[in-house]
What we know:
- This protein is an alpha/beta fold.
- It folds into 2 domains: 53-117, Ubiquitin-like (UB roll) (Roll), CATH 3.10.20; 122-244, 3-Layer(aba) Sandwich (Rossmann fold).
- Helix content is 35%, strand content 23%.
- The chain has 7 helices and 12 strands.
- It has a 9-stranded mixed β-sheet, covered by helices on one side.
- The chain is elongated, with a radius of gyration of 35 Å.
Amino acid sequence: MAKRIQARRKQQDAMQPQWLRHMPLVVGVAVFLGLASAAGLWLAEPENLPVRTVRVQGQLQHVTTQEVRSAVLPYAQAGFMYIDIAAARTALEQLPWVHSAQVRRTWPDLLLVQLREQQVLARWADGGLVNPEGGVFLPLEPVAAAGLPLLRGPQGTSLMLTARFIELQQALTPLQLNITEVAMDDRRAWRLVLDNGMELMLGRDEHPARMDRFVRAWPRILGPRSATVARVDLRYTNGFSVQWRQS
């Protein structure tokens, strides 16, 4: 009897349409997709998952927390899941004193902002300040920068001037001399002004060799007479010339 019932069931299953056999699976997938769609619509509503806190990290001296919040909040209005992270980071890096920024979400309602402020190396002659990488930025507020070295050169040469300034200053530091101005003209000829008022003419080529010549001559020749030296012209093959101050 049991064998007959089992055989009848197999016969009934075989007579069912193919699509009807997979109906439970189809229903399950449809329910899942429906729930996922509903969840997506729920998450898309900003009021359901709002950004409640903006936390700022970094050693800040010039950038205020209010500036940071004002920069990122317009991009957080879409809610936690739909914050435009890239746009928020770009907005932060457009603040004058922000060198670089990182933005990330922290569940369930926190936006974490990490900032690195600009460091000031020098002044740029056409206006603005120069960071150690050679980037020029323009603070909105006045900055006490009178004691900073001045870099002067054609447009687009700030990276070159910054790298050369650092290199030349390292050569002069053992002599207890500091550069107050680095200038490069349109012909790519270089001129330095030191903190004792002395000018160094380096010309267009062989700057390391010419600076080395000056450094070697300083202890015995130029250093003892530095108060009377106005200019040292290093644009010679094997030597230099000196212009003396008028008494």
